[in-house]
Amino acid sequence: MRDKLKIILIEDNKYDAELISKEIKKISKKTEIKITCNFAEFQIIFTDFSPDLVLSDYTMSGFTGIDVIKFVKKISKNTPVIIITGSINEETAAFCIKTGADDYILKDHIIHLGPSIKQSIKNKKINLAKIKIEEDLRKSEKNLQQTVGELEKTLEEIIVTIARIVEMKDPYVAGHQQRVSELAAEIASVLKIPDKQIYYIKLASLVHDVGKINIPSSILNKPGKLTDIEFELIKTHSQLGYEIMKKVHFPWPIAKIILQHHERVNGSGYPSGLKDNDILPESKICAVADVVEAMASYRPYRPAIGIVKALDEISSKAGILYDKEVADACVYLFNNKKYKLAEIRENT
Ligand SMILES: [Fe+2]
Given this model, what pLDDT does residue 189 score? Predict the structure, then answer.
């Protein structure tokens, strides 16, 4: 052992104390030993001296090794305590270990003391290293969680900013996105989707029509029937939205959810005509919320069709255009949970 070893020895027999000290010096020349036989004095020495190890006789005048173990483990649970005794029954020895002693040595077998001290000090170092690693790990986890939290907050702010830019272009789209976002999150909640997934379904839905920023307002809000060319142009918005959002590396599939929000389970949707299992579940939720909100709400070019007809639409085409479970969850939400779409808000 290279470092100086600080030991308190509790022993009332001068001859035994000398014998034990000799054994200690066999394992380390650099040793400082404080010897006492008084419990009150031991407590003071322990606090001032901060020993690496405590060796104690079991039976002392007015106290026992158990008192020593309890005191040491209460103050510094990693400081080893070795009980050295002339005789000890198995029950008492077991009780010492149970109370926190690291070992017990019979005076008749004092040659075992050196190896026992070495092992106890080694165990102490391992324990302290383990505690340090656990503390460092806890700190790293905390820092990581903080960093992830900050990153998510920044990404969320990016999405809210994009939603606001869309709002500046077309307030109807913005109000629509806000309400689709809230409805999609509620549907996801009925479907018992994990919270994290609900969170990014909400965010994706908040910007699901971002591609409309590239479509002239005169077409978006045109009163009357759209020409085929105009409709084809509007249909490009999901692809355009995907192109805009894929530039930001979100930890969630925001761009893909947007890309697929007009796909239909029978393959009749756009832009890719994807079928059922090829469509993201998040997009299926956004799609239902999108249709219900759009039909329930007023548009500059038509009056509101109403929530009853909107729910009829998704019920009658559940399993054909819309995912059945998602459609059922949406109907359940309005009919059983008495969900209501929020008023169109001035700010997203
Ligand atoms: Fe859309």
Answer: 97
Measure 337 CA to ligand 1 centroid, in angstroms.
26
CA of 290 to the centre of ligand 1 (A): 7
Amino acid identity at 37: C
Q: Report CA(195)–ligand 1 centroid distance (Å).
A: 24
- Under the banding of pLDDT at 50, 70 and 90, the label for residue 174 is low
Give the position of tokens 């599939």. Answer: 253
| pLDDT single digits (tens) 203-232 | 999 999 999 988 888 888 788 888 999 999
Task: Determine the distance separating the centroid of ligand 1 and the alpha carbon of 114, expressed in angstroms.
Answer: 79
How many angstroms separate the alpha carbon of residue 329 from the centre of ligand 1? Answer: 21
What is the mean predicted confidence (pLDDT) over 263-281?
97
Bigger pLDDT: 135 or 87? 135
Tell the CATH superfamily of the 5-136 domain.
Response regulator (3.40.50.2300)
Nearest residue to 53 (alpha-carbon basis) of 98, 5, 85: 5
Q: Which CATH class is domain 170-335?
A: mainly alpha
Domain boundaries, the chain: 5-136, 170-335
Q: How far is the CA of 339 from the centre of ligand 1 (A)?
A: 22
Q: What is the pLDDT of residues 89-113, one digit of tens each?
A: 888 888 999 999 999 999 889 999 9
Distance 241 CA to ligand 1 centre (A): 9
Task: Please tell me the distance between residue 230's alpha carbon and the centre of ligand 1 in angstroms.
Answer: 15
Q: How far does residue 237's CA lie from ligand 1's centre (Å)?
A: 7
Q: Output the CA 261–ligand 1 centroid distance in Å.
A: 7
Task: Please tell me the distance between residue 2's alpha carbon and the centre of ligand 1 in angstroms.
Answer: 73
Q: How far is the CA of 294 from the centre of ligand 1 (A)?
A: 10
Indicate if the alpha-carbon torsion angle 282, 284, 289, 290 is positive or negative: positive
Angstrom CA distances, 69 to 66, 137, 197, 207, 212, stand at: 5, 30, 52, 65, 75
Full-model pTM:
0.65
User: Which 3 state secondary structure label does DSSP give 152?
Assistant: helix
Cis? peptide before 271, omega within 30° of 0: yes
- Which pLDDT band, with edges at 50, 70 and 90, does 32 fall under? very high
